[in-house]
Amino acid sequence: MSSDIKRGVSLYSFQHETFQGKMSLEDCFRTCAEMGALGIEIIGEQTFWGWPEASVDEARIEEWHALIKKYGATAVSHDFMLDYKRYKGRPMPFEEQVASVKKDIDFGARLGMKYIRALVSIAPEVLVAAAPHAEEKNIKILIEVHAPLHFDHPWIIRHAEAFDKSGSNALGFLPDMGMFLFKFPPVWKERFIRNGVPRNIADYIGKAYEDRVLSEYVILNVREMGGEGPALGMAETLRHNAAFEPKRMLDYMHRIHNVHGKFYQMDEDLVEPSIPYDEIVRVLKQGGYKGYICSEYEGNRWIEDAHEVDSVEQVRRQQEMLRGLLGEPNPAALAA
Amino acid sequence: MFDKMMLCDEGFENVVENGETTGFALLARLPYYRGLGLSMVEDIALTIDGEQIRREDVRFSVRGRSWTLDEMETVYDDRWNFGEKAKVTVLRAGGLAQGGHEVEIAVRMRVSYLPFVPTTKTRRELQLAA
Question: Which of residues 29-58 of A touch B (CB under 8 A)?
Answer without folding.
Answer: 43, 45-46, 49-50, 53-54
